[in-house]
Amino acid sequence: xxxxxxxxxxxxxxxxxxxxxxxxxxxxxxxxxxxxxxxxxxxxxxxxxxxxxxxxxxxxxxxxxxxxxxxxxxxxxxxxxxxxxxxxxxxxxxxxxxxxxxxxxxxxxxxxxxxxxxxxxxxxxxxxxxxxxxxxxxxxxxxxxxxxxxxxxxxxxxxxxxxxxxxxxxxxxxxxxxxxxxxxxxxxxxxxxxxxxxxxxxxxxxxxxxxxxxxxxxxxxxxxxxx
Length: 227
Description:
Elements: E1 10-12, H1 19-26, H2 30-34, E2 37-39, H3 42-45, E3 49-55, H4 69-79, E4 84-88, H5 98-101, E5 106-108, H6 121-136, H7 149-165, H8 175-188, H9 192-221
Parallel strand pairs: 1-2, 3-4, 3-5
Helix pairs in contact: 4-6, 7-9
């Protein structure tokens, strides 16, 4: 919970709960345990919540139309403000009962393999808490400074010239392959630096091709047989 920014832990009739082992497992999340509440019923635990979401992995008449954790996270954020929302997990061995589900406004099911759909409680909590964390703090990636069309055309022209010099493109119809190369670079959405690198590659190919011709001409001049 603390990894994902959650702190309001409420236990309903916990069986065999021992504070010592719990704190040993919590490591640096002692504050979550310090503020933990214990309740005699689920109704009591969620009494101050405006929206209650239950988790389930079992099918049944009361369990249809469940949201994914990602969908549920978006709905949680839409509630907004200081209003409390409860995410309810059942005991690890059998999950929430139908009586518990009656108190839930919606359900969440974590998509898993049909060959083994069950998750242990810690895993289920982490998956759901992770989606809440991501929804609250979406990653802000810097906008790409994509290369302009004229820079891309210059790159394509220089690269085509370089590939012609080494015989990769057919002189009679170089655009046949260049069309595919253009498509590849189009899907890549190159930025300015990447275009500069490919222009450098083209220059190096041209230099190497010209240097090779100089060496070949020198060998021919000296009457050496090329291998």
